[in-house]
Design goal:
Cofactor: a divalent metal cation
Strand order of the largest sheet: 6-13-12-11-10-9-8-7
Distance between the termini: 17 Å
Number of strands: 13
Helix content: 25-40%
CATH superfamily of the largest domain: Aldolase class I
Subcellular location: Cell membrane
GO cellular component, one term: plasma membrane
Keywords: Isomerase, Metal-binding
Membrane topology: Single-pass membrane protein
């Protein structure tokens, strides 16, 4: 949930939107507000979604940095000429970072407000604070944690079984760590194995290039149309150029940071990053444990890289996942916590329920 309930006098369209979007503008640029105004001029000012309630909004690609809802109460209700909904006294403004979250939020709002009892509950709120508390309790903007099983943690003699078991699971991707001893002292997958996995699975693939020359892998990976490719900040001198190359082959460009690597030196890359991966254990030391102090780094990444997906990877258990979710992580790479369990579906449901 975003800003609190805001009493507001009657204002002209642009001024009214600017007033109700003030919290969004403090946290980022004006482009989301511009999107609302643009859609208003094109389609009309609001969607009337329930008696007394209207929803102004813009498409998610128009500058939303966070999933939020703002609430504006009108001291003087306004008639829109719709007998079923007039007069309007409450405005809900939804901000979603992507199309999936946008659709899910609108569906949740519409389903809940379809009940006359729900609308009456809002109308009977004694004050704005109570109204906002009721809306906050609905948790409309909560987004399920997106999971990416790391195939390197599965039994290499049973990859096909693992892939079959995950075939219908609700995953963000299958995650493949690429290690060739040049950056991490280990070897994982070669191109033949990667191609076989790509042909076998229905899920997108995300690649974590734990190598010293990630650009060498891009032509090979381009052929299998990866969803994400992460390079390590510590392994390259020209991350900007390589991130551009990743986007050029149609993948989302990501930067991975080891636990000791600070965030701020890489803020200049913010506009080139689709995703930022925070290592929450030391990279590929077998059996390395989750570093709880990385939760603060995750939280800071949401502040300094608001438009980038926030990933966490390394030693993630259910307990660690709860801490990371509270810190603002959106995507979790899970390995041993999944592949050492007997029932993947049960384990995945425990993680997504966070």
């Amino acid at each position: 949930m975003g800003s609190g309930a805001t009493p507001c006098q009657r204002l002209a369209t642009r001024a009214g939107y600017r007033r109700s979007s003030a919290d969004y503008l403090r946290r980022g640029g004006p482009c989301y507000l511009d999107g609302i105004i643009e859609n208003t001029l094109k389609w009309g000012p609001y969607y009337l979604i329930a008696p007394g309630i209207a929803l102004p909004h813009a498409r998610p690609e128009q500058g939303a940095n966070h999933n939020q809802i703002s609430v504006t109460t009108l001291s003087t209700p306004v008639a829109f000429g719709n007998a079923d909904c007039d007069p309007i006294w409450l405005l809900l403004c939804a901000s979603a970072t992507d199309a999936e979250a946008h659709i899910r939020t609108i569906q949740r709002i519409s389903q809940w407000l379809d009940s006359p009892e729900s609308v009456a509950m809002l109308q009977d709120a004694p004050n704005d604070a109570a109204l906002f508390a009721q809306l906050t309790a609905l948790r409309w903007m909560e987004v399920p944690m997106i999971l990416h099983p790391s195939l390197a943690s599965a039994d290499p003699l049973r990859y096909a079984e693992a892939l079959t078991a995950l075939h219908d699971a609700p995953l963000g991707s299958l995650h493949l760590d690429i290690e060739d001893t040049s950056f991490i002292n280990n070897i994982t997958f070669g191109m033949k194995t990667i191609q076989a996995v790509a042909q076998y699975t229905r899920h997108p693939l995300s690649f974590h290039l734990m190598v010293s020359s990630p650009q060498r892998w891009l032509p090979w990976l381009a052929a299998i149309r990866p969803g994400w490719i992460f390079i390590h900040a510590e392994s390259v001198q020209n991350p900007s150029e390589i991130l551009a190359d990743i986007r050029a082959i149609g993948a989302k460009a990501g930067l991975a940071l080891n636990p000791a690597t600070p965030l701020l030196p890489y803020r200049y890359l913010a506009l080139q990053l689709d995703a930022l991966l925070i290592m929450t254990s030391e990279p590929d030391g077998r059996g390395q444990q989750f570093i709880a102090a990385m939760c603060e780094k995750v939280s800071q990444s949401r502040e300094h890289f608001p438009a980038a997906e926030c990933w966490a990877d390394g030693g993630i258990t259910l307990r660690a996942a709860r801490l990371l979710a509270a810190a603002g992580a959106q995507h979790l790479v899970i390995g041993r916590a999944l592949f050492t369990t007997a029932n993947y579906d049960v384990t995945l449901s425990q993680f997504t329920a966070l």
